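Sequence in, structure out.
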Amino acid sequence: MPFKRRAVLSRLRSRISELELAQKEANASRDALMATTRALRESEERYALAMRGPNEGLWDWNPITKELYLSARLLAILGFSGETVRTTSHDWLKMVHPDDRVPYQSTLVQHLKGQTDHFECEYRVRGRNGEYRWILSRGLAVRDENGVATRMVGSIGDVTDRKRREAVLRASEARFRSLVEAAASIIVVVGADGRVREFNREAERMFGLSAAAAIGRAWSTILDSNRVGQDGDRFDQWLDEVRKGWQVRDRETVLGQHIISWNLAPLSDDDGIVIVGQDITQRRRAETALRQANDLLEYRVAARTAEAEAACRQAEEANRGKSEFLANMSHELRTPLNAIIGFSDAMRLGVMGPVENPLYAEYVQAIWESGTHLLSIINDVLDLSKVEAGHFDLAPERLPLTPLAEQVIRLMAEKAMRHRLELRLQVDGDPGHALVDPLRLKQVLFNLLANAVKFTPAGGHVILSLGRDDGGSWIKVADSGIGMRPEDIDRVLEPFVQIDSHLSRRNMGTGLGLPLAKRFIELHGGTLALASQPGQGTVVTIRLSPAMALC
């Protein structure tokens, strides 16, 4: 029994040792497997990150069975969801844009036949939303010992944004070239080596050289062959300035019979220099002609100025002569007129006794009225002459407008009654006070009312109205008379003008009433305006300036 138990224990210990050894080996295998798994996972993560960076997905294709594997990243690029997809190359071809299928298949076949080292092709693929996106597909075939492709693995990247930028860039370049070719200026682009890279049509015309012949040649040889400027080295100096980062503006040279203004600037995207030349020959000729014309004009202006100054001096002398003449005439006319008016008035009133013969009384009345009228005309002429000469002085006073208007109405009442007219004063609120020359304002209102009475048929009305608004005090004289055409209004405000009508011919005057009234109001700083229509009467509106119109 002891011997058997020892044998069992010995076998048991041996088995335990084998199990412990097997466990150690299993643990070692497990650790190795876990390490391998971690390494594989890390490798897969690094690869996934590497593919995600450039926005690319993987594909795996069997050319024999046509089975195609698409990675999840590739599906996401096209807008599809899912981890992976197994499909066929036939289904994939249906997603390729119809215009791109032939070049895509041709490129793929060339690589499968071994004609290219690798497969690379850009084409459009329809995504989940039905829109086509540009992709760049790269791949490499795995071949057997006979060179037959048994497998092909590659990647696909979304290049839609790049394609759009390229399209925009191409369109921009096309517009730029169109502008360059259509420009009326010489446009030349010179590279860092001094050779011509661009040469537009205007440059061809000016230099007598085709773009094909100019591109690639040294710019200095083109200048020398055409004898540009007084010395050909000047352009080399300008180019050196631009290479240092400066800009050259408005430098002129002579090209044959043309004067060219040059502007040079560095290109922003490389070391090239853009040269723009503008033919300013016509401008220079125009400037020369303009200077000559200005000189001639200045000479003529000086001559005309001298003539005008001489004429002005003559006019001043004539005006002084007129003023002296009018002053003398006023004295010569007023003295006998005062005697005629005074004596006839005394006879009219019977100061020295009554006039026996009734006809003599009528004659005396006519003499007095004629003398008074003639004296009024002389006074109006003298007043207008003084106003126009700037020698008329006002004597302004602060006074209410309503009493002044009432005085004028009283003076005109008898005359209006003789013409069988309604004459009335109409006050709209309180017109306030005004700083005016009372004698001259009365004269203005009297002239306006006299005109209104003269040209209003019997049975009509004449209204003198006063008021005040936001613009200040105003005075209006309105009648129901014959009126006038709008085109005649400016004429009646000129001295000695008479508007032809049957009523005006019966009431002839000097034509000084309205012009003198307008000038007196303007001396006060106010305005006088007329509104009239034939057969509808006339309205004369006076507005006093804020400085003259007081509350």
